[in-house]
Design goal:
With about 150 residues, the chain is an alpha+beta fold. The protein has one domain: HIT-like (HIT family, subunit A). It is about 25% helix and about 20% strand. It contains 2 helices and 5 strands. It has helices at about 60-80, 130-145, and strands spanning about 20-25, 30-35, 45-50, 85-90, 100-105. It has a 5-stranded antiparallel beta sheet with strand order 1-2-3-5-4, covered by helices on one side. A hairpin with a 3-residue loop joins strand 1 and strand 2 (about 30-35). The structure holds zinc ion.
Length: about 150
């Protein structure tokens, strides 16, 4: 539903730097974060900022246009920064039921090429952490590409 949800972790104040992500930039209707799990280099999350909604179906036309513009802008920045072989866009809402996308660069050399990245419960997925300087450099590169 689209009603305010006090327990929603994405409606609560979001840290810019956390064990889960690092903020790249605020866009027109959303904020782009670089995911700490870099199994898929350049993996980002784009979170709708304006209010709590669970899906595209709850957005007004202007919100939708702004969100889709942000999604395209973020995707182009990721492609420019890390040059993947393909982009995957995942908006599932099963873990955090607040409109957001995982923008997942895919590579012919990645562990799941040809298949979705999600295989099972998120806790059982491969986790890859970059060294902090490399992680921050990637976030800065993405910001420059926006
Ligand atoms: Zn929310």
């Amino acid at each position: 539903m689209s009603e305010p949800e006090p327990a929603c972790p994405l409606c609560a104040p979001r840290p810019e730097d956390s064990p889960n992500w690092l903020k790249v930039a605020a866009l027109s209707a959303s904020t782009l974060y670089l995911d700490r799990n870099q199994t898929y280099r350049g993996h980002c999350q784009l979170v709708f900022d304006r209010r709590h909604v669970e899906g595209l179906e709850y957005l007004a036309a202007e919100e939708h246009d702004a969100m889709m513009g942000d999604l395209r802008r973020a995707a182009r920045a990721i492609v420019a920064a890390v040059q993947p072989d393909r982009m995957n866009y995942c908006s599932l809402g099963n873990v955090a039921p607040h409109l957001h996308w995982h923008l997942v660069p895919r590579y012919r050399s990645d562990p799941r090429w040809g298949s979705p990245i999600y295989t099972t419960d998120v806790s059982q997925m491969r986790v890859t952490r970059l060294e902090e300087p490399a992680f921050r450099a990637l976030a800065a590169t993405l910001a420059r590409c926006l």
